[in-house]
Amino acid sequence: MKRAxxxxxxxxxxxxVIVVVGVIGVISAIAIPMTxxxxxxxxxxxxxxxxxxxxxxxxxRAASIFSTVRVHVTLASRNYFLERWDKGTNTWTADGGTTxxxxxxxxxxxxxxxxxxxxxxxIGQAPLCxxxxxxxIAGTACVIFNSRGVPVDxxxxxxxxxxxxxxxxNAVFGITISATGMIRTWRTLPTATPVWAKQ
Length: 199
Prior knowledge:
30% helix; 199 residues
């Protein structure tokens, strides 16, 4: 009877505690980097989807208000917003709020040197935005749609292919807009010879 009570009151040995702590340590050492990589991938892919949605919204908004609408990207500030052309005042007017990219995500394509197949001849961001006087705004990129949903330049002439690129250093996403207004999202790893996959 005394022996049964002693066995029931017995705790864990030091060896058992060390083994459990070691197993927890090994699992943590494996899980933490994987979790960090997964979260980074969620951030950059989410930002790419958000930018692609803004481009699609600009296209639809231009058609719905029978005017010109653009996605104004500020490269250094890592944000973008929609603007519409106000025919009454001949000025660009903000249309909604500003969206910022996530931490460690920037507009750019890093070391990638080739655009997705059958899009741009040479990889590059969309052309510079222009202010109300028609002067280039440094450090920007603009995707402009006319009222028919066709991408145009600042003079209103149709463009061949515009693009916006986003990267976190581990992946590069490209949002391309063809001359017909078709919007596609692409993804690749940051290498000089990329293999772009349509998303």
